[in-house]
Amino acid sequence: MTIDRGRLAARLAEEEQRFREAHPRSRALYERAAHSLLGGVPMHWMVRWAGGFPVFVAEGEGAHLTDVDGHRYLDLCLGDTGAMTGHTPAATVEAVRAQAGRGFTFMLPTEDAVWVGEELARRFGLPFWQFALTATDANRFAIRLAREITGRRLIAVFNWCYHGTVDETFAVLCDGRTVTRDGNLGAPVDPALTTRVVEFNDVAALEAALAHGDVACVLAEPALTNVGIVHPEPGFHDALRAVTRRTGTLLIIDETHTICAGPGGYTRAHALEPDMLTVGKPIGGGVPGAAYGFSEAVAARVRARSRLDTADTGGIGGTLAANALATAAMRATLQHVLTEASYARTIPLAERFAAGVEQVIREESLPWIVKRLGCRAEYWFSPVAPRNGAEAAAAVDPELERYMHLAALNRGILLTPFHNMALFAPAVTDADVDRHTAVFRESVAALR
Ligand SMILES: Cc1ncc(COP(=O)(O)O)c(C=O)c1O
């Protein structure tokens, strides 16, 4: 089947109308919010939800959330990974309740911080850790330290990467040149001055970008997840590690999304050996918390350049970073929630999702494919797997995506906005996954 664009536009209009009619309370809140919140939303990106306005949440529990109009959704977005554990994981809630009675923030460490540092070391194989509140900050701080200890100013990233609102990473390749990413608001400096962008899976380009010995670090997701899932080709990580070592460039692996691959992320699952590692989003069960870790060698170089009298103005850390509440949440989540047993449940759910969607794609002879990484899966409107960011970005079909998302939303399933991604919390059941397959089948059939 090929997609008839006229039919698609008509179906999308029907879904938009259905959405508006079914969400009067969300709509009223959105209209009220227009008077106090920029764009009617508390966070800029929320304007991008399919439907014209976001649903306002009443509550979430496990793999479901309920909106203010009383609709209950199977949540396969999970706060774009922030709630990968499912909403209100019992152990995290209990730890947060207990800590709430003992104080939220002191700018002093608690014993939980030591436990979390030890656990992160055990999981990711890097011995030393610092905490931040968001993965964005963890990346910013890691980049600073990389620059400091190498004495180099540039960083390298992969084309169409996303690592949070980190200025240096808002860059893409255009005709082989590094240019600012479309929509990069008020860029403090032209990213061409700070960043070399390389295509994922392109070893020759990586060699060329690092050959001058002026790049402090490569900041990389081990598999791209933010322009759809793009897996590394066999040997790519070996080459990445070899060339970074040879050129004295530090390798920072960002596991914020790829922690979907297992308890120690992609790094542990594939025996990677980064110099630094950053992680955020789900490690506090949804309570803001993030961390960045270092190898022994990096830690020694940082120590050699740290001064006591300027420790508070070095550009890393923050008043609320490592606060007692976040740290208690991270401990409980790592100890009891984001465990081997959890992945043993969620990875087969993602496999079942992929198999169901693939079955429909076959039935309908659609030129689409499905990709999976751990407990995350995603369908592509493309017959072949993109090898890099440029190919992935070229495969995006915004109108079709909007339709698929809204059709799912109108039938009680929330997908991650901005791409076709589904993430699985342990509370999801096989029946939930099969329900998604049925909705996917119905949405596609309506385009026939
Ligand atoms: C790989 C990766 N790193 C970092 C971030 C930033 O996370 P946060 O927005 O929580 O700071 C994201 C957000 O999507 C991400 O996907």
H/E topology pattern: HHEEEHHEHEEEEHEHEHEEHHHEEHHEEH
Low-confidence stretches: none
Largest sheet: 7 strands, mixed
Strand order across the largest sheet: 4-12-11-10-9-5-8
- Helix percent band: 25-40%
Looking at the structure, what is the overall shape? Answer: globular
How many β strands by DSSP? 16
- The overall average pLDDT, rounded, is 97
Bound molecules: pyridoxal-5'-phosphate
The count of helical stretches stands at: 14
| Residues in β-strands, percent | 15-25%
First-to-last CA distance: 7 Å
Radius of gyration: 22 Å
Which class of secondary structure composition applies to the elements?
alpha/beta
For this entry, give a set of tags:
single chain; 448 residues; alpha/beta; 4-stranded mixed beta sheet; globular
Structure description:
The chain is of the alpha/beta class. It is 39% helix and 16% strand. The chain is built from 14 helices and 16 strands. It has helices spanning 5-22, 24-33, 90-100, 111-124, 135-150, 203-210, 236-246, 265-269, 296-305, 324-337, 340-363, 389-394, 398-410, 430-445, and strands spanning 57-61, 64-67, 72-75, 128-132, 154-158, 171-174, 177-180, 195-198, 215-220, 250-254, 276-279, 290-294, 369-373, 376-380, 413-414, 421-423. The strands form four sheets. Strands 4-12-11-10-9-5-8 form a seven-stranded mixed β-sheet, sandwiched between helices. Strands 1-2-3-15 form a four-stranded mixed β-sheet. Helix 6 runs parallel beside helix 7. The longest helix is centred in the last third of the chain and has 24 residues, at 340-363. The mean pLDDT is 97. Pyridoxal-5'-phosphate binds at residues 80, 134-136, 139, 162-164, 221, 226, 254, 256-257, 280-281.
